[in-house]
């Protein structure tokens, strides 16, 4: 069973049974001596070396190679929010909606088993729980799920635990690979939301994923949490090719600039989603996609472009670049 390190320092690989769930417990070393009022690429308190910890591992533990993603025809993409309030769920929901709109058979799994927000964003009440489907995948010996799943009007399928807390014991880390393999045999794209830390469930799911999307915003706490998360990803063996960084609610004139975020993370930002709070709230309040509220608006275009970015590598291998052709990038 996983446990916190007795010294409260760093993490051991959760695959070796010790983890830290709180990112703040990771931070060590000297903090920035000054916090300037104006942040930019030259005067930035967000540099990676100020967050310290050597990449060789913690307490002498080596970095291990990550397990290979699911070996099925589908694409599994995890959305990871290192800090609350970054809009990770709304991003995952709208990317899933875009894939469904482009006739890609897609399911979104909410792995926040107690307070998952996906059903709320989609204005749906789950009829089937994750625990129920996990048990079904066990009985099917990893075969495709036979029964229908909850489906949004956009065409996006959804799986969530909702309020059936009495079933949580059925959702074990050992059963999750079979569950996701079953979903992978039924859907072209398996998206996962609700991961906020590095507990056993989270690491098991991320080990299966082809891509992990780290959603960040232009504020100091979010960027610092993202930098710490990227270090943890490296210790778990996830290379830059497996991690996509998305800057949400992007504003050109923000104090924390795009260049500053890049310098802080030590990894390029792969996509930006503009800040259109009114449009996003309007979509969430009605349980629909941004593209349903105002097709072709800037925010909808950004979300569609992110869906294309995440999907096109797989599409290029299987269908000659469907999304590249769709967006005129081929």
Helix content range of the residues, please?
A: 25-40%
Query: Quick one: biggest sheet?
Result: 8 strands, mixed
Distance between the termini: 48 Å
Basic shape: globular
Order of helices and strands: EHEHHEEHEHEHEHEHHHH
Find the count of extended strands (DSSP E, 2+ residues).
8
Model description:
The chain has one domain (75-326): P-loop containing nucleotide triphosphate hydrolases (Rossmann fold, 3-Layer(aba) Sandwich). The chain is 34% helix and 12% strand. It is built from eleven helices and eight strands. It has helices at 88-101, 118-121, 130-139, 176-184, 200-208, 220-235, 258-265, 277-286, 290-293, 298-319, 322-326, and strands spanning 75-80, 106-110, 150-151, 157-159, 189-195, 211-216, 243-250, 271-274. Helix 7 links the parallel strand 7 (243-250) and strand 8. The termini are far apart. Residues 1-14, 16-62 and 319-330 have low confidence and may be disordered.
């Amino acid at each position: 069973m996983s446990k916190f390190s007795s010294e409260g320092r760093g993490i051991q690989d959760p695959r070796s049974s010790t983890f830290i769930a709180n990112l703040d417990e990771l931070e060590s070393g000297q903090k920035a001596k000054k916090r300037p009022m104006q942040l930019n690429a030259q005067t930035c308190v967000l540099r990676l070396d100020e967050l310290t910890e050597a990449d060789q591992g913690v307490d002498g533990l080596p970095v291990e190679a990550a397990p290979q993603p699911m070996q099925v025809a589908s694409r599994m993409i995890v959305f990871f929010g290192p800090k609350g309030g970054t809009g990770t769920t709304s991003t995952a929901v709208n990317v899933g909606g875009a894939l469904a709109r482009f006739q890609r058979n897609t399911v979104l799994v909410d792995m926040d088993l107690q307070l998952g927000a996906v059903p709320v964003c989609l204005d749906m009440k789950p009829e089937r729980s994750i625990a129920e489907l996990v048990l079904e995948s066990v009985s099917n010996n990893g075969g495709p799920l036979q029964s229908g799943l909850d489906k949004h009007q956009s065409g996006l399928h959804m799986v969530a635990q909702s309020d059936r807390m009495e079933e949580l014991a059925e959702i074990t880390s050992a059963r999750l690979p079979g569950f996701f393999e079953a979903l992978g045999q039924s859907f072209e794209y398996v998206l996962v939301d609700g991961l906020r830390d590095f507990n056993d469930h989270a690491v098991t799911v991320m080990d299966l994923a082809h891509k992990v999307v780290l959603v960040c915003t232009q504020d100091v706490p979010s960027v610092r949490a993202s930098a710490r998360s990227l270090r943890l990803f490296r210790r778990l063996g996830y290379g830059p090719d497996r991690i996509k960084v998305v800057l949400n609610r992007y504003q050109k004139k923000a104090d924390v600039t795009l260049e500053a975020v890049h310098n802080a993370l030590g990894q390029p930002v792969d996509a930006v989603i503009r800040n259109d709070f009114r449009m996003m709230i309007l979509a969430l309040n009605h349980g629909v996609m941004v593209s349903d509220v105002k097709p072709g608006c800037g925010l909808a275009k950004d979300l569609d472009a992110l869906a294309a970015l995440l999907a096109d590598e797989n599409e290029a291998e299987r269908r000659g670049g469907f999304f590249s052709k769709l967006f005129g990038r081929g």
